[in-house]
Amino acid sequence: MKRHAEAAGLYNNVALLHTKSDATISKPQINFSKENGFTELVIKYPKVKNKLPIISKLLKIKRYKQYYKHGLGLLKSEGFYPDLVHCNVMNPVGLIAKFWKKQLKIPYVITEHWTGFLSSDGRYSQSRALKFSLPKIANSAEKILPVSSDLKNALIQNNLGNNFEIVHNVVNTEKFYPQNKTKNKFLVVADLENVQKNIIGIINAFKIFSKYNPEIELSIAGGGNDRELITEHINHIDLSDKITLHGRVPSEELNNLLAESYASILFSNYENLPCVIVEAFAAGVPFISTEVGGVKEIINKERGFLIPVKDEKALVNAMSQILKTHWDKEAIRNYAINTFSYNKIGQEFNSIYTEVIGN
């Protein structure tokens, strides 16, 4: 969300407004800042604690709308009057955009990257509440901006939206760049959520790969609910000396890990268009991924390998092939800059904003 605002702010006067409930506070907290070319206003407010589900839901919606209204008032007091609202995903903030369009006549667009719309994920199709509320929000938007063609098709299949334009995720290509470091590992950057990311499958494949390449290590950067499960599995198959769990790491450390890696890996059961792939590309590093979601739209033979879901043997073969292939790191990086950089995405947003406001 913030990176999209920074990109849009290169060509437009942008304010980022975000509100969220917090169970640890008893009164609202307001944080106003102006940096990186845009105004940022974050409002935290006390969480609703009513035990009756229906009343609690209604109070949550009321409070959510109340603090967004308050935030808009604060922005106006600073001289910011929006011509357009740009939502980062339609749920839940699309509710606010739809309300403001009706009450204040402000048009809105929605960037969408939620994997829940994909049939392989299924969270949208299983939710009566979302299937009731989201079509009204999506179909009232001037444009829906999915981050991949695959997601666009999923939205169309779910009758969500009438006017689409694909705008990819944005990556800071200044923070990720090629370095000349000795390579001695493969890298996984992912939430430690095994149902989606299949980290256990990567570890199993690395076990086989390691028999023939004992000098190569595996680094896993990320946090999540399955860290203990993954740690136990690493110990169980005697790979604790070859696999390092780094936890969540800042971009500078991640860039160093990428520079030390032959390739980065995702072995997900479902995905949309993960930023970690583009971060690797910006660092000039090829990528191995399962052929899921929008991933197949950006990985080709010049930038890595696509493999079937859950196919551990294919992953072993891809890792071996990475070592035998010459990769043009400058070409990989240039693709990232020309497709996902702040300037590129900012220009795309600017064209959309001009079109919508002009209409």
Description:
39% of the residues are buried. The two termini are 25 Å apart. A hairpin with a 2-residue loop joins strand 2 and strand 3 (38-46). The longest helix is centred in the first third of the chain and has 25 residues, at 53-77. The radius of gyration is 22 Å and the shape is globular. The protein has a 6-stranded parallel β-sheet, with helices on both faces. The chain has a 3-stranded mixed β-sheet with strand order 1-3-2. Strands 4-5-6 form a 3-stranded parallel β-sheet. The mean pLDDT is 95. The protein has 2 domains: 2-170 and 341-358, 3-Layer(aba) Sandwich (Rossmann fold); 185-339, Rossmann fold, CATH 3.40.50. Helix 1 crosses helix 13 and helix 12 runs parallel beside helix 13 (342-358). It contains 13 helices and 12 strands. The chain is an alpha/beta fold.
Compact overview of the structure:
The protein is α/β, with parallel strands linked by helices. It has helices at 2-8, 53-77, 94-104, 128-140, 149-157, 194-197, 199-212, 227-236, 251-259, 275-282, 312-324, 329-340, 342-358, and strands at 14-22, 29-35, 38-46, 85-88, 108-112, 143-146, 185-189, 217-221, 243-247, 261-266, 287-290, 304-307.
